[in-house]
Amino acid sequence: MPKFIITLKPMAADQVMTACSSVLQAAGEGLKMDWAYVDDDTHQPLCCWDAPDRAAIEDLFKRAEQETESIRNVKVFKSPTG
């Protein structure tokens, strides 16, 4: 399944949990959050979702009433160990 990295606009620290919670609650079948980070300095949320396509991600954030700054379709590369 494709992976998408989504960034939201920087926001006040107290708004981050509300924003992230609303997206998780809006997630439907076929959407799974892989990970999430928040930039300590800017309070900008970044998250990675597994989704069937970009339209599903756009719909998710629209339902959650969260404006995205960017949506990127990505491939995962892992660094070699040892």
Account of the protein in words:
There is one protein chain. By secondary structure, the protein is an alpha+beta fold. It has one domain: 2-Layer Sandwich (Alpha-Beta Plaits). 29% of the residues lie in helices and 32% in strands. The chain is built from 2 helices and 4 strands, in the order E-H-E-E-H-E. Strands 2-3-1-4 form a 4-stranded antiparallel beta sheet, covered by helices on one side. The chain is globular. The N and C termini lie far apart (28 Å). The mean pLDDT is 93.
**Share in helix:** 25-40%
Number of helices: 2
**CATH level-4 homologous superfamily:** ORF SCO4226, nickel-binding ferredoxin-like monomer
Shape: globular
Terminus-to-terminus distance: 28 Å
Number of domains: 1
Secondary-structure blueprint of this entry?
Elements: E1 3-8, H1 13-26, E2 32-38, E3 45-50, H2 54-63, E4 68-74
Antiparallel strand pairs: 1-3, 1-4, 2-3
Task: Provide a concise account of the structure shown.
The protein is of the alpha+beta class and 82 residues long. The protein is built from two helices and four strands; from the N terminus they run βαββαβ.
What labels would you give this structure?
82 residues, alpha+beta, Alpha-Beta Plaits, 4-stranded antiparallel beta sheet, 2 helices
